[in-house]
Sequence to fold (451 residues):
Amino acid sequence: MTLTSFGPANRIARSPETHPLTWRLRDDGEPVWLDEYQAKDGYAAARKAFADMATDDIVQTVKDAGLKGRGGAGFPTGVKWGLMPKDESMNIRYLLCNADEMEPNTWKDRMLMEQLPHLLIEGMLISARALKTYRGYIFLRGEYTTAAKHLNRAVEEAKAAGLLGKNILGSGFDFELFVHTGAGRYICGEETALINSLEGRRANPRSKPPFPAAVGVWGKPTCVNNVETLCNVPAIIGNGVDWYKAIAREGSEDMGTKLMGFSGKVKNPGLWELPFGVTARELFEDYAGGMRDGFKLKCWQPGGAGTGFLLPEHLDAQMYAGGIAKVGTRMGTGLAMAVDDSVNMVSLLRNMEQFFSRESCGFCTPCRDGLPWSVKLLMAIENGEGQPGDIETLLGLVGFLGPGKTFCAHAPGAVEPLGSAIKYFRPEFEAGIAQAKPGVPPLARPIVIGA
Fold:
């Protein structure tokens, strides 16, 4: 898989004006260390924020720019920052970077951390100044060993240069930053489960309210942002609100650029920084090169395994939250997966639901018992042993595990692709339904929950 932001040869070259996240990338894929980063205007935005802007001005600028979370939920970043308490006496507060990138088919944050570690550090430094947080943590997926090595080196470089630690840039502001590698659980992508894990607890989501802005790490005010989100902050501060809002394509309600990609049996799988509002067809055909010879596009997911499947006729949708919502699912992480015509959807969904079932924290009943139930049903259908009524039971689980029915968003994300697969490819599921034995009720087949 190519980790690159290069588009086809006929595309405009990357520049600070059009590719704020990736213009500093090296052609050889090696990390951009401090000297090179500063030679490419690195930390200039941080110096501007410290010298010329009040903390409230930084927050307002990010809010006015319309920056939204890039981890999948898309919550407005400036609004989230505004939830942090104004009380100056609450001087112990934290900034957490959610780098637990375990969404299947998603690898965008990995590229930023491995090749541009100082961009993340600068984004966290400006954010810490705005939020008056004295300590930050990068909660990193444990399998990202290269990212951990590069981030730790970059943190040490920033400390030696006076960009982290005490009295940063002579401002009197102190900020410590630590890289914390997690044990490897998908649920840690949920911000309160991440907080529990950071504290050394079991990674269960917390009840909200109270929200982390009021009661977070060790009971103190805490803000949690995604890697890509924080990496947008320096460009917004350095270039201004009007510039940032003008990057997106006409019709997009989301501002700026987004790291987007395509995986699967496409000719050029990869990762590119593109303006919000490009069509999925442009991403698929012009950047990913379409399907490999001998394969045909059957369906696709727009942003990770927790988003619904779409058909080839949906490729004209614009890649922003509202554009993808118009065709029936979510933008998610923006890294799409192409499913070719050789794939059986029942087998694909069984594999996905096994992953989501295994990664459930087990806290709430619908998720703990419902996801293993869906796996048992899908395994039976896959083996041609499904019973009449099994598809209806699966659709019932999609409803029972939907938004607002479970403690966190894990289960709703898990069943969204299942519901869409049955919607578009029901005959493939029906093909796995065996004839019921005479005298045996359709749903009498035992289902062992959690086995």
